[in-house]
Automatic annotation (TrEMBL):
Source organism superkingdom: Bacteria
Molecular functions (GO terms): glutamate-cysteine ligase activity
InterPro entries assigned: GCL_type2/YbdK_subfam (IPR050141), GCS2 (IPR006336), Gln_synth/guanido_kin_cat_dom (IPR014746)
Name recorded for this polypeptide: Glutamate--cysteine ligase
PANTHER family in alphabetical order: GLUTAMATE--CYSTEINE LIGASE 2-RELATED
Coiled-coil spans in chain: none
One GO process term, biological-process aspect: modified amino acid biosynthetic process
Highest classification ranks of the organism: Bacteria, Pseudomonadati, Thermodesulfobacteriota, Desulfovibrionia, Desulfovibrionales
Amino acid sequence: MSKARHLFSAFGIEIEYMIVDRETLAVRPIADKLLAAAGGVPDASDVELGPVTWSNELVAHVLEMKVSKPAKTLKGLAAAFAASVAKAEELLAPHGARLLPTGAHPLMDPFTETVLWPHESSEIYKAFDAIFNCKGHGWANLQSMHINLPFAGDDEFGRLHAAIRVLMPIMPALAASTPILDGKATPWLDARMRHYAHNADRVPAVMGAVIPEAVFSIDEYHARILEPLYRDIAPLDPKGVLRGDFLNARGAIPRFERSTIEIRVLDTQECPAADFALADVVVSALKGLVEERWSTYEEQKAWATSELATIFNATIENAGRAKVPDEYARLFGVYAPSWIPARVIWRRLAMSSLPTMDFDPDWEKALAVLVDQSSLARRILAAVDGDCRPTNIRRVYGQLADCLEKNEPFNVGILGAPYYL
């Protein structure tokens, strides 16, 4: 997004997938070979393929797909990304590899299997590695969907930032897809975010509390967040390689060079239809907040970062079952006598947002599974059914890879009813 656009007038979507062996699902650091095959040139870092562009990430086993230019609507993008996935699968087949969805690999050992991207932008990646050690789950084993939303001017920035801050604590309730790491069920349904939240502990200003601070003007953001961040990193980054918006690792970060805010806390789902169903519900909820449909701008701004972070940590652990206080639920027009499960808020938001969404039929099945059966994390646990032997994990994640190829939701039916929600 090269110029300032008004709220919700355009969308930038990025989705990351891991490259794995087709038979064993072991990570395969061959993103450079895939990009070279797609672009027809060696060492390609970005390849534009119609509406979707491919690019590298920090590690060599991850491929990022993103819209080639700002999209005026989310409608139609699921099909475009599904076609892009099919192209990647075709090019990976000669290497005996395929793409794997979800927010993290369940069996990868990032401390021994990580290969950093060695080509363009490698200086930045080496700088991150030197300071933070990128061989860990919070750096090398995570895939997410980023949503970029535009703003034009200070007032729009403030309103969008306020809406994102108050909605972010319950985003993992829908988006969690990482209940298994190191071959075992973790205490968190969104283990990716649990590890991500601590990947920059050496310089706390990089991450903050994940939930952004209560800052609602552009100048204040620079003064209170970015300048202290650059100051704190300077002794470890004397060449200033990391001085830029991208250093900020909060769950949502302004990208001032393109006048957008980038949401970064959504785990990759099982297929593009599911990712875009999730994206549309999130965007529709944010639009309702910005329009003050359920709460005022002043009420949204009043929430302290620490209060929101407490709710966020609860949904990282328990997804839709996480209990949130009634005063928080009222921000979304949901009234309850006391604490309420986060899933109830999302169901109400989905019901109230659906009539106003630019709905895409491609999302229909995926949205029903997401709302009715709950997060992908709980569906994965239902399918694993307590058996975390590597053979069983590979079986389930092989099914998830099939869902990605077919662009179909992971529907576990009645098998995992106790895990739902």
